[in-house]
Amino acid sequence: MIRSNNSRNRRAADLTIGCLSTYRVGVELRPPSYFALAALIDGPLHGYAIAQRARELSDGRVRISTGTLYALLERALAESLVTAGEPYVQGGRQRRDYTLTPAGRALLADEAARLAHASRAVSGRLRATSDAVLT
Amino acid sequence: MIRERIGQAALRAYPPAVRQARGPEMLGMLLDAAEQSRRALVRESGSLVLGGLRERRALVARAGNRRLVADACCRAVLIFLMLWLISALNTQLIAGASQQLLVQEVVLAAILACALVGYQRIAALGGLTALIAYGPLGPPIQLVAPAKVLIPIVCLLIMVRAPQRRPRDPRRLLWLLPVAVLAAFHAHAHVSLPEILAVMSVGGLLRLLQDPRLAIACSLVWITLLSAYAGRPAPAGLGLFDLAAVATGLMLTIAAGPLWMMRHRAMQ
């Protein structure tokens, strides 16, 4: 579940239906949302390719199913974090490419920085206390 | 081909608007993912069904509580009309055909048809007129009778003020078929009106997580039906087991609507 710093954002997060609530700067993204948006950093991709790329980026830890991905993309479109291209047919299947917007990129950068900070803080404390635990 | 059919069936869980906008694309992704294995097909189809149900729930939640209650009242009117029509058809079978009964049935069927297709304001005004003409409000008027039809009257008035927002669709007239079948059961298999309502309530409870409107509508009809039966012996054919089943259904249905709304309010 998305967690936020103020009550307004908490309310938005509580209204989550599915895995992804309203994206706001300063609001945590769940792993599927984070990796799905991150999959679009290198360029536009269609639905299945997003799911595949997200899996690669997360080393197989995040598997995004069709229902989850489209709920997530719908929200991202509503928040202008991604844009949808025109539908086209490839291999007999209808597809549509999604592109990350500057707002989406900014949100991803914020989230990556927040995760990095959290990781550094915890790793630092673990290193600092590991000797004490061993002795 | 079978995979495509399974995918299309799973997509039906989504509201029609979403299905139209993203359906082919979602189906394409499902087929891509399902190429790996049969297990993947099951997993992806399941995820589509769950996603669709979530989408429907979100649609209901976005409508707001006021609209939710108004919709439930409109549905309650439909159930009232169905039960009334079934009851009238049954009376005709028992007491024999009469000109007055025949006119009443035609009027009720026309009102129900109007409401089903989407002319709900006309249907509600027709329903109020029918209550005055054929219901307990008609002559000779009894003092206790208006209280028993208070809920239907309120529901009809709400239907006049705030009819359901949905496009008109003559295909909904197909709902008259189950009414005819239930009327036949009511007459020949001694299935009582509470039992018919109990079946509808089960449907309402099954859909509760996505949409509480039918459950709330059933609870409104239950209250009316029970107040109509109050002080009278149980309807013919209603055994102890049936009564227990009906009572359980009644309690669950009455509790379901408010519970859903409380949960929804807590989420806000």
Describe it.
The complex is a heterodimer of chains A (135) and B (268). With 135 residues, chain A is mainly α. Chain A has 5 helices and 4 strands; from the N terminus they run H-H-H-H-E-E-E-E-H. Chain A has helices at 7-14, 31-38, 47-57, 66-78, 102-134, and strands at residues 82-84, 88-90, 93-95, 98-100. Chain A has a two-stranded antiparallel sheet. In chain A, strand 2 (88-90) and strand 3 form a beta hairpin. The longest helix of chain A has 33 residues, at 102-134. Chain B has 268 residues and is mostly helical. Chain B contains 12 helices and no strands. Chains A and B meet through helix 3, helix 4 and strand 3 of A and helix 2 and helix 3 of B.
What tags apply to this protein structure?
heterodimer, A: 135 residues, mainly alpha, two-stranded antiparallel sheet, disordered N terminus, B: 268 residues, elongated
Number of strand elements of chain B = 0
Structural class of chain B: mainly alpha
> What is the helix tally of chain A?
5
Dominant shape of chain A: elongated
Q: Unreliable runs of chain A, pLDDT <50, ≥5 residues?
A: 1-22
Radius of gyration of chain B: 21 Å
What kind of assembly state do the chains in view correspond to? heterodimer
The tally of beta strands of chain A, per DSSP, is 4
| Share in β-strands of chain B | under 5%
Shape of chain B: elongated
Largest sheet geometry of chain B:
none
Average pLDDT figure of chain B: 79
